[in-house]
Every structure is written in C-alpha cells, then in structure tokens.
Design goal:
D-Maltodextrin-Binding Protein, domain 2; 11 strands; single chain; 43% helix; alpha/beta; 313 residues; 3-stranded antiparallel sheet; 6-stranded mixed sheet
C-alpha cells in the first residue's frame, strides 16, 4: 500500500508536466441545464483541487453526445480531456449498432459511475392528457401528429419515446434537440407534445405549473413527485428507462491518475453541491469503482440490445 502511494505521488506530477499545466476539461455532450452538466460542474472543482490546477467544464452538444465522446476517445491518455458519460454514446449507440467514429468497447477508461436518475413522462402544464393511456389513445386517433422530444437520435429519451410507442401501439413524431433544457422549453411553449426525460431538468418547470408529469419511467414512484404513478402502474409492464452518469477518460489513463479521478467522483457526491444536485433530480448517488463502472456499461449494452427498439428519425 505504501509503495502504491509513493508511485501515485510520482505519477501525478508527471501527468501535470505532460499537460503543461493546461486546465483539465470535462466535456458534456449536451446543452447546459441537465444533470449531465450539473454533475460535471460538481466534480470539476474537486478534480482541480486533487490535481493542483484548474478543471473546466465545456459543453459540446451534438449527435446525442457522440461528438463530445469522440473528442475524448481520440484524446491522449494524459487526463487533460475527460467526458461526463451518459448511456447514449456509451451504451445505446453500440447496442443498436449505430455507426460510431470510435470503438466504444475499447476507446474509454471508465472511472466511476456517479449517479442514476429516473425519468418522467412530461407534458405541457395545461395539456388535456391526464395520464399515459390518455396520451396513447389520442396518438392512436391522430397517428404521427403527437410529437415528442429527445436529446438527439439514439439518445435515451429517443429510445424511451419509441419504447412507449411500441408498448401502446401508437405512432409519434420524434423531434431531436441538443439537450434536455431546450426540449422542456418547447413543451411548455406548446410546440412539442411530450418527452420522457430526467427529473432534474424538468422539476422546476413542473413545480411552477409550466409542465406536468403524467408518469414515472421507473420501477417505483419518484421521491420528488410521489403522487405521479409509474408507467408500470399505468399498465406498461417493465417500463423503466432512465439515465445514468459517470466519468470516463481516454483508454490508457495511468492507474494512479485514474485512482485520483475516481476518488474525486466519490468525494464530490458527499459535498453540499453534490447532495443538492442528487436531491433535486431524485437521483441516486453511486460513486463506483472503475471496475464496477466497466461492468455496468457492459450490462447496459446488453440490456438495450435486448429491448429491440427500432429508432426512426
């Protein structure tokens, strides 16, 4: 144990020299406002303190997070560029056979699974739909006229929307966005029908009455909205599609650096900022080891592959 500590102390200055004291950057593949962005901003100062220099968050939305993931996949393994990972690029795209500019199974070094977040079925605050069966019934009367939003093609929201359509025998029109926050704005404005998206980004607008939650995409009711029944309770057996978040770097990160980054992920979840972010999103903090996160990603790829959802548009 003592020898490992000495090696770590030697390795981290070497990494800092390789970076030339450049700031560490955590890429977020979506627009600001969602829990991916929030968790990146919670862990950044802890990483900065542990490495002894600045850690910044950079939003680089596009292709449902694949653009940011590609940049990290192709970065040198010196810790200067990291990714706040999300199921879209790390699990859904490889599970569905989407053409990617990197090998998802080999391109990344998983660092820590940080949190799990349930999703809600969200509509406009004054929408006539009072529950998911009412939405489905309306969509069946007007095939293709009810729209739903996602954070991009093959995003977790896209999969959830198509899974709901398949479960209810309805047909929706998919509208991709560059993140969850702009999706919420368009639902509240009436130009978009619904979304199945995270609690963190939707809760303030639900509580203000601009949005309404008519179902929880989770195995149990969401703590922040206990009156909202799950989709399982509403007759959609096994429907529980949500988000998870974890830090990854390029494959080949030095072991001492990876251990330091993993410790930062665990530590940040216990800070007031981390606890607030988790509470606001009704999310579960995890703080896994690197090995546990790697196993989680493999399991998620298998789970999404088994769903057999066909994505269009």
């Amino acid at each position: 144990m003592r020898r490992r500590a000495v090696l770590g102390a030697l390795a981290l200055p070497a990494v800092a020299r390789a970076q030339g004291q450049r700031p560490v950057r955590i890429l977020v593949g979506f627009a600001p406002g969602g829990l991916t962005d929030t968790l990146a901003r919670v862990v950044a100062p802890v990483i900065g303190a542990k490495l002894g220099h600045t850690c910044l968050v950079e939003n680089r939305p596009g292709a449902a997070g694949v653009i940011a993931a590609e940049a990290v996949a192709k970065a040198p393994p010196d810790g200067a560029l990291l990714l706040m990972g999300h199921p879209t690029a790390l699990a859904i795209a490889p599970a569905l056979g989407q053409a990617l500019p990197f090998d998802a199974a080999r391109a990344f070094a998983p660092i820590s699974l940080m949190a799990l977040q349930p999703h809600l079925l969200i509509v406009k605050g004054d929408a006539a739909w009072r529950d998911a069966p009412a939405l489905i019934a309306d969509a069946k009367r007007r095939p293709g006229e009810v729209s739903y939003g996602s954070s991009g093609v093959a995003s977790v929201q896209h999969v959830a929307g198509e899974a709901l359509a398949a479960a209810g025998g309805a047909r929706f029109t998919h509208v991709p966005y560059r993140g969850s926050a702009p999706t919420m704005v368009d639902i509240a404005g009436g130009s978009l029908g619904f979304a199945i998206d995270g609690v963190g980004v939707s809760a303030p607008m639900i509580e203000s009455g601009q949005l309404k939650a008519i179902g929880a995409s989770h195995t149990r009711r969401v703590a922040r909205f206990p009156a909202v029944p799950t989709l399982i309770e509403q007759g959609f057996a096994g429907f529980a599609i949500g988000s998870w978040f974890g830090l990854v770097g390029p494959a080949g990160l030095p072991a001492p650096l990876l251990a330091t980054l993993q410790a930062a992920c665990v530590e940040c979840l216990a800070t007031p900022e981390g606890e607030r972010a988790l509470r606001n999103a009704s999310a579960e903090g995890i703080g896994s080891s690197a090995e546990e996160f790697a196993a989680w990603i493999a399991g998620e790829i298998a789970r999404y592959r088994a769903l057999g959802v066909k994505l269009e548009g």
